[in-house]
Each structure stands twice: as C-alpha cells, then as structure tokens.
Amino acid sequence: MTPDAKGRRPGDPSSPYHIVIITPYFWPILCASTHLMKALAEGLVEEGHRVTVLTNGFGAPGSATPDEPPMKGHIHRAWNPFLQRLGVLAKCCEYTWFSIFFLLRGLGVRKIDIIFVASNPPLAGLPAALLAWLKGAKMVYNLQDIFPDSAVVAGILPAGGRAYRWLRKAEEATYRVSDLVVSISPSFSDYVEALVPGTPVATIPNWVDTDHIRPMEEAEEPAIAPFRGGGGFVVQYAGNIGFMQNLETLLLAAEELKGFPDIRFVFIGNGNAKEAMEELARQRGLANCVFLPLQPLEKVPAVYNACDVGVIPLKPGAARIAVPSKTWNYLAVGRPVIGCVEVDSPLADAIRESRSGSVVPASDPAHLAQVILDYRNAPERARLEGRQGRAYAEANLSRRVAIQRYIRMFDHLLEASR
C-alpha cells in the first residue's frame, strides 16, 4: 500500500500507528471496563502498533504500579484524590480531574495518529476532540452507554430538566466532533445516526478473552469453590452493584425461592447500592443470599465458573442504553444467562441471537423465580444453552475477532484521511 504523509502503510506493522487510549480505569484498578481496555491495548501492541494509555492512578503522576502489564507501550497515570469515592459529587470531581489531566498530559505525547476515548467518563469526548485537533490526530469515540439517559435511569438526574437538556446538547456535540463513533450495539449506532445525521458510525461489540475465560470444573480450578457460597444450584450476579442494576428484583426472587435450600444466590461486586442491598437481604431474612467483594482480574474465570446460571437485572429502560459486558463472560464460561430486561432491548436481542439463555421482564421477581427454578429442574437445558453461548462467544465476541475489527476500522479511518 502507498505510505501516507507520515510514512505509514495502513495495516503494516512495520510502520505502526500511534494510538492513545484515554480511560479513567486501567489494570490493576478494577471496574467493569478494566479487562476491555487492557485487552485492547495489549492486542494493538501485539499487532505491532504503538500504544499510550492515559489513565487514573493512586500514586504521583507518571508513577508506575508494581504489577503493570508488561506491554510495549506507555502508561501515564494521574494521581486522582477522588478516585473510587462514593457519591455523585465525588464522581463528578473525579471525572473533571481526570479530563484536565489527560488534556494537559496528552499535549506532551508526540506524533499521535488516533485518540481513542470511551464514553466513560461522560463528556470526555469534548476535551479529547480538542486534544485530537491540537495534535493533528483522529478522534474515535467509543460509545458504551447512552448519556445522559443512563443518569436518568440511575436516578441521578431528572429527565427533561435544564441539566438534562444541557448534557444532551453536549453529547450531541461530542458525536459531531468525532471522526468516528464506534458503538457496542447496532441499536446504539442507529441512535447516533438518528440524533446527529451524517455522523460516521461503526459497531463493534465488547469482547471477552475466550482463551482466558473458558469453561472449567472445580477439579481443574479449586478457586471456584469459595465463590459458590455452599450452594447446590448457584444463581449469580457479578459486577457493579449500583443504581442501574435492578438487584431488588433478584433479591425478591430469592425470597420466593427460600423454600428450596439447595438454591443459593451469590452477589459478587461493589458499588453505591451494595449496603442497601445487604440491608434489604437482612431485613427479609434471606439466608440464601451471599455477598462477596469485587475480585481481581486473575480470579474472573473462577468467579463466572462458580455458578449454574448468571442473572443480568437492569432497571426498566436501562437495557436500551447499556449492554453489560459481563453477559459475555457468562457465555464464555458456558453458563446460561437470564436477562431481566425489556424484550426489545439490545441485551435481549443478544441473548436470543446467541441462544444462550432467557429473557424475563425487568421487574417481575415471581417470573424470574420460576425461570430460575426451571433451570434448576432441567440441567440438560442449562448445559445446552451454555454450549450455544460458548460457541457464539468464540465466533463473534472473542478478543481476537474484536482486535482485528478495530485494526481494520483504524486502517480505514486513516486511509480515508490521506
């Protein structure tokens, strides 16, 4: 292929792109997106490209953590005094602090080709676009959820108010100034195209490392047993325990099934709503519920293998603006998944397409309890749906497939700008 003005050949690792990934959380800091950004950075490096990560950290700016991933890239961390504090005000301060950091630090990064920024934190796309303009780079906005609707569903922001309208206009402006919006769902892409016609949009689903996260038995991985909570049939929720997760429905389903002592409900994770969920379980005497803390990345395969069925409960409306990536972990380990979501949501579509589980209404604990009981009474069905989910993940959601999609997307973006 013909080199561009900077001497690069699209897709040729001998003349790599320099990609700056802007993400507030990067390994070893734990959150829902940690494994995604780590896998993307390492995958791009493995394909011969240069990667710089601008992220938060607990130490002084630029300091390294002892267990940083050994990748051929640069990781610049900003000490953030608001990192992982609870509360809306603390989160706003954390995001503002981080946005100022990556804008200023990014100015010192040389010869950037692509700036890749996720939609978390909200509105990070605007300072990232400014940075891209100043550095002569292309800006790719990775749409993980629809903002500010996600804040409305979480109960943080009233719908239709002045703040909502201002944030909606800011999000629209982000789409307009992006060289490309890459969303995780076809419905998200349709939303962007309808809201801001003419915006370049691509769809690349989130992924899972199917080599690392795979079906395992306790005989192979003893770490599985502690996460089963002593249950014979384990129903699991693993991930953020926050405002958008409809965990009350799962707890009420657990109450419906108190008469089945072999069924155990295990909640693994942290978040703003965890204390309230634990208190609700205590008030209702739910001895069949176990709460465990968020686990490090190396234990993720054991966590998801420690259940018989995984549950993704979301508040009404949330499934239309977010697609929890934890769903793919259940598919990768060969466990059926129950989505407590609207039947016309992207998550419901994914479950049906992969034939990996069931969809029940977002706030119907009796229905959810019956479906859980059905799985407990039909182990062959559970195993079949688990195998189907694993096959779907390998074919469509693997790390290898996603990285190649991103590289082709970057190729086309840079080639079109020559």
UniProtKB/TrEMBL annotation:
CDD domains for this protein: GT4_WbuB-like
Superkingdom classification of source: Bacteria
Residue stretches making up the Glycosyl transferase family domain: 233-381
Pfam families from the UniProt entry: Glyco_trans_4_4, Glycos_transf_1
Domain Glycosyltransferase subfamily 4-like N-terminal: 39-207
InterPro entries to which the protein is assigned, alphabetical: Glyco_trans_1, Glyco_trans_4-like_N, Glycosyltransferase_grp1
SUPFAM superfamilies: UDP-Glycosyltransferase/glycogen phosphorylase
PANTHER family for the chain: SULFOQUINOVOSYL TRANSFERASE SQD2
Protein name (database record): Glycosyltransferase WbuB
Native organism taxonomy: Bacteria, Pseudomonadati, Acidobacteriota, Holophagae, Holophagales
